[in-house]
Amino acid sequence: MAIGYRQMLDEAEAEVRSVSTEEGVALRAREDVVFVDIRDPRELAREGMIPGAHLAPRGMLEFWIDPESPYHKPYFAEDKLFVFYCASGWRSLLAAQVAQRMGLRVASLTGGFGDWRRAGQEVTEPEPH
Question: CA within 20 to 30 Å of 101's CA: 24, 62, 81, 91, which one?
């Protein structure tokens, strides 16, 4: 029997640490934490991103994490906490679950970039076209 997205999110919530925007602000100041934006590059072009975050589009995440992949990104091999975020927190929760299963220490930013921006936190503005 197939499961729906809500069940997938519930299972991920049971496995993955979630952090609020306030916790995220404190974590961002630490050297042992990497923020990972999994949104589509078009979303970043429209909305900006959290300063210092790495872009890892959701469709490439597993390949970028795996050191055996030709697409591996070395920052994923660092012994750090990876805080994943997307627009609202759903995609990043599922991405964090996958990354955790692949051996990373992870957290998911509850409410995603949307809550971050609404809270008045620092963002890099998109480049004008």
Answer: 24
pTM: 0.94
Structure tokens at 129: 């076209």
Q: How many domains does the structure of the chain reveal?
A: 1
What gap in Å lies between CA 78 and CA 68, rounded to an integer? Answer: 15
By residue range, what is the domain housing residue 76? 27-118
Q: What phi and psi values does residue 65 have, to the nearest 5 degrees?
A: -75, -45
pLDDT digits (tens, 9 = 90+) for 83-101: 999 999 999 999 999 999 9
Radius of gyration of the chain (CA): 14
Cα distance between residue 52 and residue 37, in whole Å:
10
